[in-house]
Structures are given as structure tokens and as C-alpha cells.
């Protein structure tokens, strides 16, 4: 220090020397500032990325893929390493401009999202792990958890290959778990001098939903005598509107003998992969001798009324889902005595770009065999009965409803050897945010049958399970399906029912061997609900009793909805007696004696409720 001080202030030091030193120091400072401005801390400079033979590359080809945007400019493919608890992802950008954004958030929000960003500053390209705040502003993450393996321009587009752990222990990162994952994406149409200048609300963005974690079991081999049946839309001209549900009645051959469906997969018209959102095939009721032909909107008020009797799910597919295989010992019966010749195809078109004139013949391909397997597979409905008796108050951030399949029903209806559950499909309408089904045995929670706490009504695809249920003479198994709802955007109560603005809470479980138990659901006892209406009305100074004079829906809408009204309703649903619906496939009830729900004292009225 003293030497430097003596040197700098030497009286013989020339002014020219001082000037040179000053500008040299200034230039060095500018170099440091520019370097830090152009090369963000922790970000990877893409052009300097060198192949590393030690990196563990995923097995190819990647088995799961989904188009992200309606134009098909972005496609995400991935593979799962359960051993390393990592996901390998490959993002294809058909035409790269100045960068892309890919991320995950709780329900597809652009705020508080976990992101990776590829961007260019005008001179260099960078790749980095980032996050968005509550206003959509983007910042580079101090902990970089997206590991870029390769970035390459190919004939089909620009490819990014990278990996990320399921859980990173970074509070700003999304935890990848079973169930729906909301993928958000965005396009950068101009250079970014600094990543901190990016706000997601100012660029073109979108959301896609996928099941990221898939079973890693290899698909079983199909029998040699397998045949195919395509249940597809008849060259439909897709309406130029954002959302369309298209219904089509497919006739099976007359006198079709019994076969077993052993697999199904989607058949998507080339070019429509980003528009066909999900597809379902329903079997019509065998009690309806004839269903008229129909091809048109499922919401058309002029459609044949008999379409409402086609509700038995045979197959369901959503964008990004792979083929569905039945276990080697079981198949879903099609044809033969007690079945219907009529199937209803339902295709959901998501067309936010309002493309017109596009033709479509998408649907489901069923693989079936005349060589019957050991067991018939069955589908059972769990959850809540479709009735306005179950309702959700308005302006609720979180509200829970639970449906019960009680031990008395499972003891009566299940075979002595029990059943094997191998797949499950959750279902709610627009207010649904989460669904969870648990198995209770002997009063203790034994296993989670299926859970999706990022559930979306826009993405309802089946998931494979492995679960054994038994009929135990002492306890019996209980299945509880709990749904989470959000009605913050609604000013009126939301009642249960079939309408899209009404609500459902359902889990369709696929199992074998098939039993006559087709529906095992509950709702709150109506007598106790009327006591609730009377109490709340008196509490708010309305002594006039309207019990029985108007519908339940009207009684809910006439209530004065405040925090107390909602809390008492929540308490009622959790503690009051329930009416149990333990229905056979013929829609008649199993003879079930009164039984309490799990953990709460209650009686059961086994009469059907209109």
C-alpha cells in the first residue's frame, strides 16, 4: 500500500502517465461490466457447449411426446429414469427465432412458474434455469437444475436435449410427481439484452397438460388372432370455434359374438395432432333396443335424447397418452348377450386459432380377440351421486366433497376372492382442482388408489394402478373419493349434476374379475340437508320455511351466502348421515343394510334419490 501510494503521488509522475492509467482502469471496468451483462451468471452459453461422453444419454426413441401449441411449432418428448429420479426431455422448435420459454406451474399460470429459457442477446445464445415472480417477471435461478446435454439444428427444427430431477430441493422449482403437470411455453420474437427484462405477459404463451411420470413397464404382447375396430369421426368438418364436443353413434355388427378388448389407442388425423384434445368411447345401455344415428355437436339441444343413455365408458384418451393395455388375464367384453350394438364416440376439439375448413376422422382403435381371457374386466364408478344435494358455496378458494363406497356394499357385492384394480380415471367438471381416492381397511387408510392434486377437467386421462381389494367378513374395504373445488369466480352456488357448470366427483376404476357392482357412490342424507336449510334461514332472520316447496337447487340459490353458511355446509357434508347407492349393472340396488360411513357416525338410506 505505501509503495503504491508513494508511486502514484510521485511529484515527478507525468500527467500523461496518469491519463493512460485512468483510461486503462476505465476500459478494464467496462470489460467486466459488459462481460457480466452479456454472460449471465450460471447460464450456459449454447455456442460453447461441447459434447461430453460421460453424460448419460436417455434410451432412444423417447416414448412419450406431445405437441405443445396449436400450430405444432413446439413438440416435447421425454423419458423417465426412475432409478436416477430424473426426466430427460427433448424440445423441438420448428422455427427458432430468438428463443423459447418452457416451464411448469401449479395450474398453468405464468406467475410463480419454474422455467427454462433459451434466449439470445443479439450476439450470443444462452440456456438457463429461471423463475417468474407474482407479476410474471423472469429472473435467472441461482440454483441451475436443468442440465443441458445437447443443442442442435436439424432438418426438422432446433432441438434441445436436457434433463432435470423430479425434485430439486429448490423452493422456486416445481416438484414433478404423479398426476397432471401443467406445461407452459412461450416464444421470444426479439433479442433479450438481459433476461431480467423478460415478462411472460408480454410474449406469446400457452399451456399444455401431460402425465409426465408414466409406468416404465414394457407393453404386453398382443394375441395372434387380434382384430382391430376403428371407432372414428366420419370426416367431420371441425367448427371454427375454440371448443367443440363432437358426438357420433357407431353401430357394431349385428349378432357380434362376445370378444375381449385387450388394447386401445388413439387414431389422429395427420395435421390435427395439436387440435384433437381428448376422445372417449361410451357403450349405450343394453336396455335401449335402438339408438338413432347421429353426427353433430354433443351440446346440440336437437340431438336424439337416447344419446343420454350412452354413458358406460369403454375407452378414454387424452393428448399425450400412450396406448392402453389390459392385463394378460383380463379383457373388456364387447358383443354377446347383455351388450349393446351402439357406441357413442365423443371427440373434444380445442381450436383456439379458430381454424376453419379442417376435416377430421380421429377416434379410438380397439384391439379385440375372440379368444376370451380368464376374466372379464369391469368398470366401477366411485364418488358422489350426480345430484344437486351435493353443492359448493360460491367464492371458495378450496372446498372439499367426499363420496363413499362403504364396507357394507363391498362385503355384499365383491366376490369372496376380491378384485384387482389395474387402472383409474378421475373426473370432475370445471371447478375441480384435485381428486384423491383412498382404500380404507379396518378403519385405517391402507393405500392411495389414485391422486391428482393438479387435476384439470381439460385433461382427464386414465392412469395405471396395481391394487388388490378384498371382501373381508370382519371389516370389508371402504373406498373414499375426495374432490377439491375452487369457485372463486362464481357468485352462485354450484350444485351436482350433468351440466358442465354443475359438478361431479367421480373415479372410474378398471378392475377384474367383473362383478355386478357398477356404481358405488353416496350423497348426504336429504332430511339432514333440509334441516341445514331451515337452520341457515332462521339464522339469517328468514323464518319462512320453503322445505319441499321448491327444488334443492333453488333452495341453495336462495341462501344468504357468507362465511358461516359455507362453514356449516362443510360441517354437514363431513358429519351428517349419507345415502348410499350400491347399484348393480341393471341399475337395481344391492340389498344393503344400514351402515355408517368411515370415521363418522351415520346411517345409510339405500333408496335411490331423484
TrEMBL record:
Pfam families: Cu2_monoox_C (PF03712), Cu2_monooxygen (PF01082), DOMON (PF03351). InterPro entries: Cu2_ascorb_mOase-like_C (IPR014784), Cu2_ascorb_mOase_N (IPR000323), Cu2_ascorb_mOase_N_sf (IPR036939), Cu2_monoox_C (IPR024548), DBH-like (IPR000945), DOH_DOMON (IPR045266), DOMON_domain (IPR005018), PHM/PNGase_F_dom_sf (IPR008977). One of its GO terms (cellular component) is extracellular space. The keyword Transmembrane applies. Residues 72-188 form the DOMON domain. It is found in: Cytoplasmic vesicle, Secretory vesicle, Chromaffin granule lumen; Cytoplasmic vesicle, Secretory vesicle, Chromaffin granule membrane. The keyword Cytoplasm does not apply. One of its GO terms (molecular function) is copper ion binding. Its EC number is 1.14.17.1. One of its GO terms (biological process) is norepinephrine biosynthetic process. Pathway: Catecholamine biosynthesis; (R)-noradrenaline biosynthesis; (R)-noradrenaline from dopamine: step 1/1. The chain crosses the membrane at residues 20-39. Its cofactor is Cu(2+). It catalyses: dopamine + 2 L-ascorbate + O2 = (R)-noradrenaline + 2 monodehydro-L-ascorbate radical + H2O. Keywords: Catecholamine biosynthesis, Copper, Cytoplasmic vesicle, Disulfide bond, Glycoprotein, Membrane, Metal-binding, Monooxygenase, Oxidoreductase, Signal-anchor, Transmembrane, Transmembrane helix, Vitamin C. Homotetramer; composed of two disulfide-linked dimers. Belongs to the copper type II ascorbate-dependent monooxygenase family. Catalyzes the hydroxylation of dopamine to noradrenaline (also known as norepinephrine), and is thus vital for regulation of these neurotransmitters. This is Dopamine beta-hydroxylase. It comes from Oreochromis niloticus.
